């Protein structure tokens, strides 16, 4: 996320309506060589949300990354109204560039209801204020950081991110395949649940694949490996605000066949479990046979 404040991030999700159920999104000028996966997820969610009554927030989405997106080209989002039921609404979204699908997603929306309730407890974690922000990490580890890692950490960003164990995420050493990250968007955001849900979708794609690499003593900055998101699933359990601290507890239960599975749970500072995430990613040794 390469923006110093939240306004440009919010603008990124303000899609242009081309015609009924068709929208167009753009990438920020500071994008890298490919469209960030979380951007495609969030913009697709915005497109589908605009076709759903406001009293039915999203509760789940499932998407597939089909082709790498080109950040210099607009993305067109076409929404199919699959079902409008008494309680649930289902939408399908196809994101294309130059006539080719780069991302596809289905999302489900539900009117608010009461029912049985239980949730996992938040794991123990230090307060975010006690942890270094990413700019302090650059100063702390400058002598040891790979150039790519330093460049990534030094980017101006609307995201305030605190790694609970930064050594795990930045330095190659075999460790358990799990990590925890506090995050929030800097600055106050409007009281708009749909916006906060879309921003959570944007942020939920971050750092997941790196979680799977920890157990192998690798990071995403290692030139020996090729990584990419293959699919992404997000379940939003409760209302949340991304301009307040959220704890992202991540774990990778499996890797094999040049793929890795990762999972995440997102908690409020008070300990409410507000979202769950699952993602499979490509994790390929660059000298391995390519398909």
How is this fold's topology laid out?
Layout: H1 6-12, E1 16-19, E2 22-25, H2 37-49, E3 58-65, E4 75-84, E5 88-97, E6 100-110, H3 134-141, H4 147-154, E7 159-163, H5 166-170, E8 178-185, H6 193-203, H7 208-214, E9 225-229, E10 231-236, E11 246-256, E12 259-268, E13 273-285
Helix pairs in contact: 2-6
Describe this structure in words.
The protein is α+β, with helices and mostly antiparallel strands and 291 residues long. It contains 7 helices and 13 strands. The chain has one domain: Porin (Beta Barrel), CATH 2.40.160.210. The chain has helices at residues 6-12, 37-49, 134-141, 147-154, 166-170, 193-203, 208-214, and strands at residues 16-19, 22-25, 58-65, 75-84, 88-97, 100-110, 159-163, 178-185, 225-229, 231-236, 246-256, 259-268, 273-285. Strands 1, 2, 3, 4, 5, 6, 7, 8, 9, 10, 11, 12 and 13 form a 13-stranded antiparallel beta sheet that branches. Strand 1 and strand 2 (22-25) form a beta hairpin. The protein is globular. The mean pLDDT is 90.
Overall tally of domains: 1
CATH class: Mainly Beta
Q: Give the class from helix and strand content and strand pairing.
A: alpha+beta
How many helices? The count is: 7
Helix amount, in percent? 10-25%
Short description, anyone?
The protein is built from seven helices and 13 strands. It is of the alpha+beta class.
Main attributes of the structure:
alpha+beta; Porin; 13-stranded antiparallel sheet; 291 residues
């Amino acid at each position: 996320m390469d923006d110093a404040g939240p306004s440009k991030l919010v603008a990124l999700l303000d899609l242009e309506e081309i015609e009924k159920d068709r929208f167009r999104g753009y990438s920020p000028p500071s994008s890298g060589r490919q469209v960030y996966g979380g951007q495609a997820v969030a913009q697709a969610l915005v497109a589908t949300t605009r076709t759903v009554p406001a009293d039915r927030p999203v509760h789940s989405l499932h998407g597939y990354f089909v082709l790498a997106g080109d950040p210099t080209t607009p993305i067109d989002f076409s929404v199919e109204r699959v079902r409008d039921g008494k309680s649930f609404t289902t939408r399908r979204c196809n994101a294309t560039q130059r006539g080719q699908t780069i991302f596809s997603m289905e999302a489900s929306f539900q009117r608010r209801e009461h029912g049985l309730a239980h949730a996992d407890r938040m794991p123990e974690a230090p307060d975010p204020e006690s942890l270094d922000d990413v700019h302090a990490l650059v100063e702390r580890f400058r002598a040891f950081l790979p150039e790519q890692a330093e460049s990534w950490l030094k980017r101006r960003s609307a995201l305030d991110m605190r790694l609970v164990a930064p050594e795990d995420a930045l330095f190659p050493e075999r460790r358990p395949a799990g990590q925890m990250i506090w995050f929030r968007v800097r600055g106050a955001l409007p009281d708009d649940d749909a916006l906060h849900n879309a921003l959570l979708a944007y942020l939920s794609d971050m750092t997941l694949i790196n979680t799977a690499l920890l157990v192998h003593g690798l990071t995403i900055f290692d030139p020996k490996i090729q990584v990419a998101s293959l699919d992404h699933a997000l379940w939003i359990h409760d209302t949340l605000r991304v301009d307040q601290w959220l704890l992202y507890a991540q774990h990778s239960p499996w890797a094999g066949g040049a793929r890795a599975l990762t999972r995440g749970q997102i908690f409020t500072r008070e300990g409410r479990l507000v979202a769950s995430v699952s993602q499979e990613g490509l994790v390929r040794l660059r000298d391995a046979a390519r398909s």
